[in-house]
Design a protein that fits this description.
two-stranded antiparallel ribbon
């Protein structure tokens, strides 16, 4: 007998009608449970959210940069057709492209390391002191144990 998907192939010379029917029924049951187990074992898809990059709006505090931004935005706004059916996308594109050219993106701030040399030195000192204390406790326990 060979199992192919949902049916068993049986040598017809050896099997009678009820054996074939029984084997096919078993094959369908096995196929059902294989499909059931496959569906249970499917892994959950993880959707990773992309972080939206932020424009460096701090540069707008500078009068010259602010003037450049406003001028470029006015030029792009003049090119937008009022009768356009997709006017919102044109406006959005004008703002985003102007901000990208004039302001640029915020740079990721470098964080201070969470562990410093001082912390590592204190950790080593603590280990050394614990070893000294443990050694002296063992010596006292040994003296008491052997003394009695």
């Amino acid at each position: 007998m060979l199992f192919y998907g949902a049916a068993l192939v049986v040598c017809p010379a050896v099997a009678d009608e009820t054996t074939i029917l029984f084997n096919v029924t078993i094959a369908y049951i096995l196929y059902f449970y294989v499909c059931l187990m496959y569906n249970k074992a499917k892994l959950k898809k993880i959707h990773v959210k992309t972080r939206q990059r932020r424009y460096n709006v701090e540069l707008l505090k500078n009068a010259e940069t602010k003037q450049d931004y406003c001028t470029m935005l006015q030029e792009k706004a003049a090119n937008i057709d009022d009768s356009s059916t997709i006017m919102w996308s044109d406006i959005k594109e004008a703002y985003t492209s102007t901000a990208k050219k004039v302001l640029g993106y915020k740079q990721k701030q470098q964080r201070a390391p969470w562990i410093t040399k001082e912390v590592l030195e204190l950790s080593d000192e603590r280990k050394r002191l614990k070893a000294v204390i443990n050694r002296s406790v063992r010596e006292v326990q040994t003296r008491l144990y052997h003394h009695t």
